[in-house]
Design brief:
Radius of gyration: 28 Å
Order of helices and strands: EEEHEEHHHHHHHHHH
Largest sheet: 3 strands, antiparallel
Number of helices: 11
Helix content: 40-55%
Strand content: 5-15%
Distance between the termini: 73 Å
Structural class: mainly alpha
Oligomer: single chain
Amino acid sequence: MFRKNSKKGDPQVEYQCTIRFLDDSEPIQLFFKKDTLGHSLFDQVCAKLNLVEKDYFGLRYVDADKQRHWLDPLKAVYKQLKGRGTGSSPRKAYLEKMVYNAVNDYWKNILILEARTKVSMKMLNVDNFKVGVVHNIWESSGSELLSVKRACVKAKIISGTYTLQADRAKFNGNRTSSLCPLCFKQSEDLMHFLIKCNSLEGVRRKFIMLLRNLLNDKINALLVDDLFNFEDNLLQLIVDCTKFQFLKQLWTTIERLSSSLCFGLHQKRTSLLL
């Protein structure tokens, strides 16, 4: 921090600071007064960069003891930097880690926001989401071609990208009927496809029975009844069982059965539509 030419004690004295960026782009020089708050300096930086999305960025400085601090947006910049050097730059390894964490946090927050606000992703459990940890779908899948195919179908279902007739009707402004092309009884949404369609009952019954037998041997019968007698719970169990923490020891086995169920329904539906 440097003081621009002026008399000491002048309340209008301006101070100069250097802003360095994580991508090694050209540093910029900015001026601020003794009463300038942190957010004002940050706004100057954003204006220089034409940066609109500010929520995931901030300014840091290094004190005389080489300790790093976030610039407090509600406190005067001068008081935070007084007596502290601003010429020191964080080491490259630290910068790389900081960028890595910032990028991960950004996309993690985007995914969580979409999962909690988009109807198509409402079944995806993000409560325990961690960057670098694969979802139970892939954790439970083997490397065999058939296992990968099952996991791919399941991943489309859980992410809301598996297209059913209700989706086609929605995207075509209801110019296309949402009626199930197999049974012609109800709108073909995810609930209908996985649980209700009579045309797929032969495939569904086998796997539902296997799932129920598995849980009957492991957990309280009342919990099993709650899972299978309420359609919303059964749908959640099939799509993403990690929502149920009390089933944690069974997540892998349940996922393998539910992936097989979804893949079997997918194959049967495809064959009937040919």
